[in-house]
Design brief:
The protein is 37% helix and 17% strand. By secondary structure, it is of the alpha/beta class. It folds into 2 domains: 37-68 and 351-462, Aspartate Aminotransferase, domain 1; 74-349, Aspartate Aminotransferase, domain 2 (3-Layer(aba) Sandwich). The protein has a 7-stranded mixed β-sheet, with helices on both faces. Strand 8 and strand 9 form a beta hairpin. Helix 3 packs antiparallel against helix 11 (335-349), helix 4 (96-107) packs parallel to helix 11 and helix 12 (352-373) packs parallel to helix 14. Keywords: Aminotransferase, Pyridoxal phosphate, Pyruvate, Transferase. It is an enzyme of class 2 (transferase). Its EC number is 2.6.1.77.
Amino acid sequence: MDGTFNENDLSRVVEADRAHIWHHLIQHKPFETNDPRIIVEGKGMRVWDQKGKEHLDAVSGGVWTVNVGYGRESICKAVYDQLMKLCYFANTAGSIPGSIFAEMLIDKMPGMSRVYYTNSGSEANEKAFKLVRQIAHKRYGGKKTKILYRDRDYHGSTLATMSAGGQDERTAQYGPFAPDFVRVPHCMEYRKHELDGAPEENFGVWAADQIEEIILREGPDTVGALCLEPVTAGGGVIEAPEGYWQRVQEICKKYDVLLHIDEVVCGVGRTGTWFGYQQYGIKPDFVTMAKGVASGYAAIACMVTTEEVFDMFKDDAADPMSYFRDISTFGGCTAGPAAAVENMRIIQDENLLQNCTDMGDRMLGNLQALMEKHKVIGDVRGKGLFLGAELVADRATKEPMDEKRVQAVVADCMAQGVIIGATNRSIPSRNNTLCFSPALIATADDIDQITDAVDGALGRVFG
């Protein structure tokens, strides 16, 4: 092959993929006898594969990204126009779209002040980790370097972010990891029986109190930050119970611990507010984001901080080591913020936050109705258009459903032309949650088609 083949020659595209592409999160052995899937086109909520089959996408690009749907001409035009004017300059200097989007973003985040552009969600989180470590040296004599993270949460695929990885199958075989990352318990009420000492009532407060106990165990003078997802994503779509977030905020203030909220999945509308943390009235010190920032039309991620954090690095002293000595090469690409500006305008002008809330309520209701019908659904949970249905072998004991049977439901929906997700290679023996994150443009008919597909799949897989 010389690279000059016609894009319409899809059989050749498939062979090029089979011969040369290393896909994400997939075992490639089956491709020796089966064709890899090629997604050729997308429009609105739907995508088409190389065989021309249409699929309703209930996971926004497979990994919770395409928030405003496929085929948005205005975003594509904004990116094109910007690239023709200026494609890139290192973020040691500013750019027009970078400044405009930063102002738009901060307007949606009261209490936050500064935007640091970077390459990916993993890297955005790692920037925050570096800041915590540098603050420890600048202000605390090298102490307060420890970063707490939560069981079942996920923060990225770099070695540092895997060091804060609460999903043991994601981190297996990749150690040893960076020191001074300390795990705290999950806050999943449905599985509180698996936590020693968990009470029947006020579980949210109890789960937060476990964080305080760990801070006291490690030593408050050694703990610099706490990193949490507002809604745990790949660990099972877990919303914290009542009382949790208020108590977390109190604990962080009490022990001078910086609060880092990882909004890589929930950010920019997924839960029905601009950011997931805004559902709970908390005030973070760092907010990281990526996927929905530009809905996948260009690569962009951000680490956002308060002015108080920023001022720790704004130093007139002669010490050349005092500022944040960091760079992300593609944080200087202008396509990302150009796309993000138009993405945010679409969400505002089309009232997609309200649609997310309305359609999320509809989907939650549909899933709850399926729970009444199918005894294999043990729990339904989530926020906005970010929902999960946990499958169990026994409702009384909450024994998790076998992962192969969960994946059989996903495969059945795919055969029906509906793409859903499921926890996969994340939590040992707990990869049993069906995951849904349709685009914020979803209609009632779209929602009903998704849950009808799940209904049919459950009936066929479990009889």
